[in-house]
Amino acid sequence: MFHLLIAILISAAGCTGARFTSSDISQLRKGMSISETRIITKTTPIYTLSFTGVNAPDTYEIQVYKLDSGGYLANYMLAYRNDELLYWGYPYEFARDKDPLLNEMGEKVIQQIMQYKAAQKQINQFP
After folding, report:
1. Can you list the alpha helix ranges (DSSP code H) found in the chain?
2. Is the pLDDT of residue 3 over 50?
3. Are 79 and 95 in contact (CB under 8 A)?
4. Predicted confidence (pLDDT) at residue 29 exceeds the cutoff of 90
């Protein structure tokens, strides 16, 4: 299995509820750069996670957005390899893909988001 070293960058500025819609998703294309997708989404991700391959020089970045589907908000992820859009979808779509790399990326992202939310919850308990 492909193992990843993780450097987590959670954008505090992005935690303001950045959203994008299904019409934005329909414009995404594999191979787009991060800057090209940012023009389409018109928002900043709520989380950005960076990974470096252990046995390869590849760098990976996962951006997590809040997808607005007619008032229902869900996490939606865009995954990049070396600044090119590799895959995008809901967390469960990463988990069920046949590619073990995408499976592992999805698992790591979800774990890190849960840890971040737990830490935020503890911080918010103090007056």
Report:
1. 22-25, 34-41, 91-96, 100-124
2. no
3. no
4. yes
Q: What is the DSSP secondary structure assignment for residue 126, as one 8-state letter?
A: -
CB of 63 closer than 8 Å to CB of 48: yes
SS3 70: coil
Give the C-alpha distances (Å, rounded to integers) separating 122 from 17, 34, 88, 111, 117: 20, 33, 31, 17, 9
Find out whether 25 and 88 touch, Cβ atoms under 8 Å.
yes
Structure tokens at 59: 């760098």
17: tokens are 């509820």
Q: Is 71 left (phi over 0), alpha (psi -120 to 50) or beta?
A: left
**Cα separations in angstroms, 60 against 4, 28, 44:** 9, 18, 17
What pLDDT is stored for residue 26 in this prediction?
93
CA-based radius of gyration for the chain: 15
Cα distances from 5 to residues 56, 76, 94, in angstroms, run 11, 22, 18
Q: Which amino acid is at 12?
A: A
